[in-house]
Design goal:
Layout lengths: L3 H12 L4 H22 L2 E2 L15 E2 L1 H19 L17 H19 L6 H11 L8
Antiparallel strand pairs: 1-2
Helix pairs in contact: 1-2, 2-3, 2-4, 3-4, 4-5
């Protein structure tokens, strides 16, 4: 929480409204990190996770399903941001080679995975999964 996750949270705040691609990448990575922690540990701090600077040294643990729902919303937001032109070119991206299109593919794949994991508890999962599959023929980024 005090290293890369804190850095992602700061990056999201710093790039809000100024660099949509970096903001989308940071939100995608945040969703990936938190859903991985839920898969490994169950309930973890999420909504109060980065309030230590404000004196909250004991954040509450959020329900895993609530974190998944928040991360699905993060991924939707990030996907929209990754489609926008950015005044700042992405550089130094060792994961996906500075490609917003590759980040969109990763984002959509992660969303697909999360929807599959929550399909029994998420009433909208089937429709959203079908929409992702239907878009694979029309969206040039999905392969």
């Amino acid at each position: 929480y005090s290293g890369p996750l804190k850095d992602l949270d700061l990056l999201i705040k710093a790039t809000e409204g100024t660099s949509p691609v970096y903001n989308g990448i940071a939100k995608t990575l945040k969703a990936y990190a938190f859903t991985t922690m839920v898969d490994l540990f169950g309930d973890v701090p999420f909504s109060e996770a980065f309030l230590g600077d404000e004196g909250n040294l004991t954040p509450k643990f959020d329900n895993g399903q609530a974190i998944y729902n928040a991360c699905l919303a993060l991924l939707d937001d990030a996907n929209g941001l990754l489609k926008q032109p950015s005044p700042v070119a992405v550089s130094g991206d060792v994961m996906l080679g500075n490609s917003a299109a590759a980040w969109r593919r990763f984002n959509r794949s992660l969303k697909f995975e999360l929807l599959m994991k929550t399909r029994l508890r998420n009433a909208n999962a089937k429709a959203e999964l079908e929409a992702i599959l239907a878009a694979s023929g029309t969206d040039p980024v999905i392969t």
